[in-house]
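User: quick one, fold this
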Amino acid sequence: MKPVHIVILVFISIGLAIGISFYGDTSKYVCFAEADEIAKDKPDMKLHVVTTLSKTKPQIYDPQNDPNYFEFYASDTTGMEKRVIYRNAKPTDLDKTDKVVLIGYSRGDHFEAKDILKKCPSKYEKK
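Assistant:
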C-alpha cells in the first residue's frame, strides 16, 4: 500500500470519528409529552423543551437551606404544564423572560433540567 493511501485512510477515519462523536451528542427539541415517551426507551437522552414559566404556581428556592435546588412549573408549546427541578442556583432575571428553553431529562412526574436558556423579548423588539 502506498503512503498516500495510508494518509487518505487516516483522514477518512478521523472524519468518521468526528462525525460519530457529534451525532451522539445531539439532542432534540420536543414537548413534555414527547419527552415522556422518549424517556421510556432512552432515559438518559438529553432533550430541549421550549416553555413559558407558570405565573400561577409557586417557585421553590431557598438559598439558605439548599442553594442548589430550584423548583418551578413551566408550560410547553402545547400547553402541558410540568414541574421542573433545576439542581443549581436560580437564574437571575428568570421571572422577566418570555420563553425558557429547558435542557435535560424527563423523569416521569417532573423534568430534570441540567441547563436553562432564557430569551428576553425586549432585547429583540423594535422600539
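User: anything notable?
Assistant: The beta strands are 28-30, 47-53, 60-61, 70-76, 81-86, 99-106, 110-119.
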